[in-house]
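Lecture notes, continued. The same structure-token format from the folding unit now serves as the input rather than the output. Read the line below as a description of shape only.
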């Protein structure tokens, strides 16, 4: 549910910015230093990264039989690394 709401907010925000004629500099001006947007995008990135890792784990289990605790830990690590990239990008908008 968190990811669904985050995607909806993200898309509405993008559509509003594009239709409003905002430039990239104007968007960055609005997001820079805004802790609420940083928190939102950090949660969005974390949920998206974990969602992707869960999907990849299930596909690997079904197609190549990769199962077990070690595989679960590896996919969790991949999800957290992916989320970390997203959080770093969100920080770039914030800082």
């Amino acid at each position: 549910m968190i990811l669904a709401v985050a995607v909806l907010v993200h898309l509405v925000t993008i559509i509003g910015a594009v239709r409003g004629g905002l430039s990239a500099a104007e968007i960055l001006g609005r997001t820079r230093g805004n802790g609420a947007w940083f928190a939102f995008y950090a949660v969005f990135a974390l949920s998206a990264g974990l969602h992707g890792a869960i999907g990849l784990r299930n596909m690997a289990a079904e197609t190549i039989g990769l199962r077990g605790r070690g595989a679960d830990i590896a996919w969790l690590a991949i999800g957290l690394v992916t989320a970390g990239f997203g959080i770093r990008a969100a920080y770039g908008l914030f800082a």
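Point for the exam: The radius of gyration is 16 Å.
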